[in-house]
Amino acid sequence: MQQDSANSEGSDSKMLSSKEIIEKYLDFYKKRDHKEIPNVSLLPKEDSTLLFVNSGMFPLVPYLMGEPHPMGTRLVNVQRCIRFEDIEEVGDNRHTTAFHMLGNWSLNDYFKEEQLHWVYEFFWDVLRLKPEKTFATVFGGRDGASKDEISVEILEEIFRGKGLELKEGERLFYLGSNWWQRGDAVGELGGPDSEVFYYVPSEDSASRHSSQSPDHPELDSESMPKSAQDLEEREDEFMEIGNSVFLQYVKTEDGWEQMEMQNVDFGGGLERLAMMVQEKSDIFETDNFWPVIQRLQELTKKTYKADPETTRHMRIIADHIRASVFLAMDGVLPSNKDQGYILRRLLRRIVRSGKSLGLEKDISVELVGIVVKMFSWLYPDLTEKQSSLEALFAEEEAKFRKTLNRASREVERFLEKSSEKDLSAEKLAKQAFTFYQSMGYPEEIFLEDLREHGVTIDTADFKSHFDKLEQRHKEKSRKGAAKKFEGGLAAHSETTIKYHTATHLLHTALRAVLEADSETDVAQKGSNITDERLRFDFSFTRKLEESELKEVEALVNDVIEAGLPVNFEVMPLEDAVETGALHFFDEKYGDKVKVYYVGETLESAFSKEFCGGPHVENTSELFPIEIYKQKKIGKGVIRLYARFKE
User: Fold this and answer.
1) For the domain that residue 608 is a member of, what is the CATH number?
2) Cα–Cα 20 to 30 A to 196, which of 107, 155, 171, 264?
3) CA pair distance 467, 615, nearest whole angstrom
4) CATH number for the domain harbouring residue 227
5) What is the pTM of this model?
């Protein structure tokens, strides 16, 4: 494949800001006939059990499985994401919770040849990353699936074009783990992937390069990875900056089989790319975090690299305040459950790290404005939300400071009277659980206290004992499952699809019974669906009367009994709005949208909403519902729980 000339697209990459990286990425793929799709809320708003949007492909799952996308077959975007698998690692020079994913997709359009050429062209010719510091991995075969030799041939041609020989075990590595799948159930998608790695020395290895640039030294023979295992184990030096997934298989009863569609799903982390482009060995020194670090230096009168603990705490605060602003921007409120618990956890960790730096009040308030200034170009609504976010964070911070100060004194007393045998992982876990139960003091912050008092502990052993204590307590008190907050996209089961359609009916019924007099009155604020129930959040000033709940139930069940068809139409955004279809008014949509409606025609439909699907084909496939619980979860927001009466 002949590569396009990059003369008009490339530039001096050393000075590229994250904003410019995004602009160049979108422009690159738009020139290749891609349509930009929206950067959606972190809160999944359809029928997923995913706690947060954790990848750019999440909103596209129905289309990767065959639904026609309103914008076509070539798509591109930047999507805000949050993942918490590595939250304990935040504090080193590259782990973060919130990030932005650059993504492009082919829905049964182009495939390996175009995708691989384009992604390397963007990295090398547009961002000016160095080919000699770049490494590639491909699927090495497993479970009866063969090596991805087609991708290897394409990559050999790409690297040869830069004068580099691509040899297995030197710059190219086969990995059995280079296989992506959404789940393990029959009907799930999967396929081989090809990752791009880039060399940046770790903080520990930087001393080897004292004669070179301390941030981005040249790659010498001593530093080259010696094997696939070596590449994986040295993840602090060889960072993944992009991954092309080739979705070409579907799971059947007999295993993975080739499907008719051949999709491409690419994702590349903006923050990591900025680290490479801006030639930093520390992600917190990029423009995505550095303004926060600068403000922390001013507030604490300490330099960022004064000592390892100062550096670590500043990194934790910089990451967490950014993630907290993004969550609150999307409507999350601190609480003890679900998304609200995650926000509360982040804010508490900010307060704890601030205390270690000598900051005793208003730390989050001091930093919200910095984050707003950094990202208002990408999220214009942030500016008008700044004051409300500051008030929200200040209240949460004040609440926790009382607990923190009290607990810190208790920890001091405990350690003063403890003997060495009291400091085993098991006994410390018991003490942590006591503090957690009596004061609501998080175990991770108790661990931070131990660390600062010089207590060495096997963290994994501690967490194992703590989790067992917590699980026993939850089982005894009938609380939720132990790992509620581990995100992961669940499959669209038959039951969740039914609940998704029922959610549409519930939304319309609520607006009818509560006599919504505007498009934004009694409007959806979020939803969550499992195989057991649906949960629906909507704007309203009070909890519903029992008679109102029964009337809503009856209206939904009448539609279910009527056996109305469920269809959709793809239409221009303006036309869709004119139909009166319900949608999220603070959400950005593409030029074309899909409108699902329940009824014989769109004009006469009982329910019509902007939605990507999937849904049942007829309401007769549903069971009658019962609303079994309601609660007020914030100012002007009501939450209902409903389930099928099978």
Assistant:
1) 3.30.980.10
2) 107
3) 38
4) 3.30.930.10
5) 0.74
